[in-house]
Amino acid sequence: QVQLVESGGGQVQAGGSLRLACAASGLTFNGYNMGWFRQAPGKEREIVGAISWSGGITYYADSVKGRFTISRDQAKNTVSLQMNSMKPEDTAVYYCAAGRILMGLSAASSYDYWGQGTQVTVSS
Questions:
Q1: Is the pLDDT of residue 83 over 80?
Q2: Sorting pLDDT into bands at 50, 70 and 90, what band is 14?
Q3: Phi, psi of 109 (to 5 degrees)
Q4: What is the C-alpha separation between 110 and 30, in angstroms, rounded?
Q5: Helix, strand or coil for residue 90?
Q6: Closest residue by Cα to residue 6 from 76, 81, 61, 67
Q7: Exposed, middle or buried by CB within 10 Å (0-12, 13-18, 19+), for 44?
Q8: Burial 46-69 (b: 16+ CB within 10 A, else e)
Q9: What span, in angstroms and rounded, lies between the C-alpha atoms of 92 and 59?
Q10: Are 72 and 81 in contact, with CB atoms under 8 Å apart?
Q11: Of 94, 124, 76, 96, nearest in space to 18 by CA
């Protein structure tokens, strides 16, 4: 049974930092691309960042480029999202996802498995 468990969410002031982690189990981790998505109240789920199965390709939404960094640890079956210079508009539930379609790193439809999400709140 595949499980993706997010951790590290919380509340932070604008300009601050948070680091999210996603622990994967029940799958061959180094065979899956990993993505972070977010969904704010009343809005659709959107891509934040993604990393290919090898770690050689990364993708970031324009809104987070230069502020967020995605990384993966193949030995620990984890993917992380370092979030710096955070803004109130980063407030959302953040989801970890795993998928195998390399050409669709930014598309939610390319991911087969999803975590339950972790709340991130940025106050002004």
A1: yes
A2: very high
A3: -70, -15
A4: 16
A5: helix
A6: 81
A7: exposed
A8: ebbbbbebebeeebbbeebeeebb
A9: 19
A10: no
A11: 94
